[in-house]
Design brief:
This protein is α/β, with parallel strands linked by helices. Helix content is 40%, strand content 21%. The strands form three sheets. Strands 3-2-1-4-7 form a five-stranded mixed sheet. It is globular. It starts with a strand and ends in a 5-residue tail after the last helix.
């Protein structure tokens, strides 16, 4: 039975899984929290550790693994397996030959690709994308990423970065994005953006249960991204501040999706990522807003669905990179 290892390197966690490449079943996983301050050596040790932990849990030997794939939120030179840069990681990781480093360590072919492009590969093979050859994946987490599948093939673009939905401008001269640009969708609707907006209002004196919930979860007000559990509990408690900020972010996400629908006319949009998985109302508000704001003809043709593989989309897609 063929196995692969997929690594989903996100802004809050590094998740590795051992995947049955024929069925897409995830046999075992391991994860560690991401540390944006990690230098190159620390980051690579973190990735190596989760791969080893997942392999040990699955009780597999290295010669039973066909390949290793890593999906990472950033700009990637796919052909050479180099991380060119990532807004949520240390500057020391710029131009990092990540695939070669992992391949040398494990003695297994290793491949590197943008995280949402990887998730789209997983969704196309075993998830919601099986129902369509023309879809766009939009994943909302620490940042916002996207990927385009046309006629059953991933659209890479001239430099490999096609699908960067999170860096569409939705507000002229708007908020500063982590990439350095202004008014980008990611600066309004990502978990990082939601966190900054909530904590900013708390610092201005607005009452919220979030401060107490963060203390209970072990976080403090220097957190770059609130945990999904904190957001959920605040919403369940009827926290007015959290409800306002989450609603605004959901609306902004919907505006971005409307532009995607108008520009690309996809048959399907697959919404996923940690924030979408954790907070149902974001999906509902974003879909409703997108349908209201886009043109009538493409609106009738598009289906908007949650990711079929959930949190494992990136892991499954990354494990399949060896077979592309």
């Amino acid at each position: 039975m063929p196995y692969g290892i997929g690594v989903d390197f996100g802004g809050t966690k590094v998740l590795a899984g051992v995947v049955d490449l024929d069925s897409g079943e995830v046999l075992a996983t391991a994860k560690k929290r991401t540390n944006a301050a990690d230098d190159t050596d620390q980051m690579m040790k973190r990735v190596v550790s989760v791969i080893e932990d997942a392999t040990d849990k699955a009780k597999l030997k290295r010669d039973e693994i066909e390949g290793i794939g890593v999906g990472l939120a950033g700009q990637i030179d796919t052909a050479r397996g180099i991380l060119l840069g990532a807004p949520n990681l240390s500057q020391s990781t710029v131009n990092l030959p990540m695939a070669d480093l992992l391949s040398s360590h494990f003695g297994i072919p290793t491949f590197l690709r943008n995280d949402v492009q990887v998730a789209a590969i997983g969704e196309a093979a075993f998830g919601a994308g099986k129902a369509s050859d023309n879809f766009v994946c939009v994943f909302v987490g620490t940042g916002i990423g996207g990927a385009i599948v046309r006629n059953g093939k991933l659209e890479s673009g001239a430099s490999g970065s096609a699908g960067e939905v999170g860096h569409m401008v939705i507000h002229a001269n708007g908020r500063l994005c982590g990439c350095g640009g202004r008014g980008h969708l990611e600066a309004y609707a990502s978990r990082t953006a939601i966190t900054k907006a909530i904590l900013g209002e708390i610092h201005r004196g607005r009452a919220s249960v979030v401060t107490k919930l963060m203390e209970e979860s072990g976080d403090d007000e220097t957190a770059s991204a609130l945990r999904s559990s904190v957001l959920n509990r605040a919403l369940e408690a009827g926290d007015g501040l959290t409800e306002d900020i989450v609603h605004e972010a959901s609306m902004d996400l919907g505006y971005g999706l409307a532009s995607v629908i108008n520009l690309l006319n996809p048959a399907m949009i697959i919404l996923g990522g940690g924030v979408i998985e954790a907070v149902d109302r974001i999906f509902k508000v974003a879909e409703r807003t997108a349908r209201r704001q886009c043109l009538a003809t493409p609106e009738k043709a598009v289906t908007i669905v949650p990711a079929g593989l959930g949190d494992n989309a990136g892991v499954v897609g990354a494990a399949l990179l060896n077979r592309l």
